[in-house]
Amino acid sequence: MSAGFENRSAGAIWLRWAVIFSVVVSGIAVRDGKAAVYGAVARPVDPQAAWLTYAPVNEKKVFGAGAVPDTILRLGDADVEKTAEEELESGVRGMLGRVVREVRSADGLKGSKAFVVVGTQGEVEAWRPGLKSTKAIGADGFRLRRDGNAIVVEGGDSRGVLYCAFALLRLIAQERSLAALDVSEAPSAPVRWTNEWDNPDGSIERGYGGRSIFFDEQAVRADISRVTGYARLLASVGINGVTINNVNADPKLLNESNLKGVARIADEFRAYGIRVSMSIDMSSPQAVGGLTTFDPLDPQVAEWWKAKVEEIYRFIPDFGGVVIKADSEGKPGPMKYGRSPADAANVVARALKAHGGLVLYRGFVYNNHLDWNDLKADRARAGFDNFHTLDGTFEDNVVVQIKHGPIDFQIREPVSPLFSGLKKTNEAIELQVTQEYTGQQRHLVYLVPMWKDALDTNTYAVTDKPSRVQDIVTGKTFGRAEGGFVGVTNVGLDDYWLGNPLSMANLYGFGRLAWNPSLSADAIVDEWTRQTFGNSEKVRAVVNDLQIRSYHVYESYTGSLGVGTLTDIIGVHFGPGPESAERNGWGQWIRADHEGVGMDRTVATGTGYIGQYPPELAAKYESLKACPDELLLFMHHVPYKYRLKSGKTVIQYIYDSHYEGAAEAVEFAPEWETIAGLVPDRTYFEVLRRLEFQAGHAEVWRDSITQWFWKMSGIADAKGRVGNYPGRFEAEAMRLEGYAPVDVTPWESASGRKAVVCGAEKCSAEMTWDGADGWYDVAVRYFDEMHGESKYSLEVAGREIEQWKADWNLPNDRLNGHTSTREVVRGVALHKGDVLKVTGWPNGMEKAPLDYLEIVPAVVTHASTSKTAPAAVR
Ligand code: GCV
Question: Is residue 217 flagged as an active site residue?
Answer without folding.
Answer: no
